[in-house]
């Protein structure tokens, strides 16, 4: 049963990811992205990474994509109607990157790449994998973890500075 | 037939289906009389009698209303995005129903549909999916009042979701698990906060001092997450007509209504599970469901009580309160609870 579920989620993931790129309406594109995040969460669940699956839904589908939708709706982008030379260049680059990725995929498939056993060793079931992730995060990956938190803090301060704008006295002089 | 019956996958699916049907139909019944209770209680608060015409004591009022809604015209605005307009009401109901899979309504395994080790996260994930119903309903109606209502409401829900997510962290640290059954079982037994107390309290989350502030924050965010008064700005009828569901009629509108009541039940169940010992209570274990329902109904009554007592907040007050009071409060409490729990374990 599990392989079939995996195939179903994987097919949904690929199909929705393609629709994100192909669809003309930005709101619908964003919603397809939400759907693809949810099917990715489904795949995490099948890999017994329940914590990761739930966090995927909470953070990406629940927080980030809602903000995306917000921006799209506020700007009221109805349809993508970009044309001209610039879009042609962009499209060309897109095709090139896509071809490279396809080549990469073929290489992987040729080398007999396939999903192995679910996990080398399953995390202890009593604490669940949230405990296992926490233990690894605060020991082996402590440094990257702290760096990430500083990065987020910097982004937050930057956002506040940008949102506040210049003080009134300065903008009068300018 | 017996080969099919002995198939393990089939059995899992079959019992899951049975449990889903039982839960769904019971929920619908509870919602029917929750609506009746809301109208009765608000009536008595305003010195009226409330519904009393259809059936004895007006008990058949809600079924009559449902039939009326079913028979009404289903109207879709010409400028609406047809698909999303239909998807939004479904999304309003689905997350609440999905969350019920992990709520322990009585001692496991009989009264728990499924116990997963991230049950609490599933609740948070589903409540964050619930925001989409309102955003999409507001946007797809192609109506400026609906859009404003939808944006307001989603901004409110995102802000309060953060505070809610942070307020449950001390509970997780206290019980050491994210499984809702585990959280309930960690509250078993009695507890004496200090020696001079003449009687022992039940070991519920609410009686531990470092879980008091999380409870207060969770309790406030409960109202905001279900879009109920005093946080019902999305449907502030004086400013926004009916908010995000302005353009909805007939059963589609009642799906939003149903979703609101489902969410109330869900979030009250989570509150009972986290802070009031869930199905725990004196007597044999089978009485668990009675205790759970009793606690649930008390919280639901408070929901209704608050709605008909407090006036609506202003939008900027709401946002300020969420970001400048609840969020820092929840963060500070995490620090305090962490230090206290570490000190008690190692000090």
Strand content of chain A: under 5%
What is the H-and-E element order of chain A? HHHHHHH
Task: Report the sheet-strand fraction of chain B.
Answer: under 5%
CATH class of the domain at 1-79 in chain A: Mainly Alpha
Low-confidence stretches of chain A: none
- N-to-C SSE series of chain B? HHHHHHHHEEHHHHH
The averaged pLDDT of chain B comes out at 83
Number of H- or I-type helical stretches of chain B: 13
CATH architecture descriptor text of the domain at 1-79 in chain A: Up-down Bundle
Q: How many beta-strand segments of chain A?
A: 0
Question: Explain this structure to me?
Answer:
The complex is a heterodimer of chains A (174) and B (347). Chain A has helices at 2-22, 26-46, 50-75, 85-110, 128-137, 142-164, 168-173. Chain A is mostly helical and 174 residues long. Chain A has a domain at 1-79: Four Helix Bundle (Hemerythrin (Met), subunit A), CATH 1.20.120.1200. In chain A, helix 2 packs antiparallel against helix 3. The longest helix of chain A is centred in the middle third of the chain and has 26 residues, at 50-75. Chain A is globular, with a radius of gyration of 21 Å. Chain A starts with a helix and ends with a helix. Chain B is mainly alpha-helical and 347 residues long. Chain B folds into two domains: 1-71, no CATH class; 72-346, no CATH class. Chain B is built from 13 helices and two strands. Chain B has a two-stranded antiparallel sheet with strand order 1-2. The radius of gyration of chain B is 21 Å and the shape is globular. The N and C termini of chain B lie far apart (62 Å). At the A-B interface, helix 2, helix 3 and helix 5 of A face helix 5 and helix 6 of B.
Overview in brief:
The complex is a heterodimer of chains A (174) and B (347). Chain A is mainly α.
